[in-house]
Amino acid sequence: MSVSAALKVYDSQVTTSSAILFTSTTAACINLGCIVVFNWIYPFIAQYLTELELHRTQTEFDDSLTLKIYLLQFINYYASIFYIAFFKGKFIGSPKQYNRLFGYRQEEV
């Protein structure tokens, strides 16, 4: 997704030497945008889910809300790192048959 976005924005200006820089920057900006948006949405989701539980005391409610916000923000901030560390290399394929995305091998992107 970041490759096609970078190529559409910088199509006439991209050279082969700077294509990797543009692609990496575009991917990082998309990732940052997703983190910011989800960081804004997750407290509303945590509040809604906690209200569905019908806690007896305010302390139970606050503890549950704090746990949900913490877990959702942990997932939000570290999901991309876990993806790169544990999953990205698994989808490349074998040397005889590489998986391609938009006509490119994943390690080329």
What does this structure look like?
The chain is mainly α and 109 residues long. It has one domain (2-108). It is 69% helix and 7% strand. It has three helices and four strands. The chain has helices spanning 2-9, 16-52, 58-87; strands spanning 93-94, 97-98, 100-101, 104-105. The strands form two sheets. It has a two-stranded antiparallel sheet with strand order 1-2. A hairpin with a 2-residue loop joins β1 (93-94) and β2. α2 runs antiparallel to α3 (58-87). The longest helix is centred in the first third of the chain and has 37 residues, at 16-52. The chain starts with a helix and ends with a strand. The model has no long low-confidence stretch (mean pLDDT 82).
List keywords for this structure.
two-stranded antiparallel ribbon; mainly alpha; 3 helices; 4 strands; 109 residues
For the biggest β-sheet, the strand order reads: 1-2
End-to-end Cα distance: 10 Å
Number of helices: 3
Give the overall shape, derived from the CA principal axes.
elongated
| Biggest pleated sheet | 2 strands, antiparallel
Structural class: mainly alpha
**Proportion of residues in extended strands:** 5-15%
Number of domains: 1
Tell me the number of strands: 4
- Average the pLDDT over all residues and give the rounded result: 82
User: What is the CA-atom radius of gyration, in angstroms?
Assistant: 20 Å
Main location: membrane
Pfam families: Anoctamin
Family: Belongs to the anoctamin family.
Subcellular location: Membrane
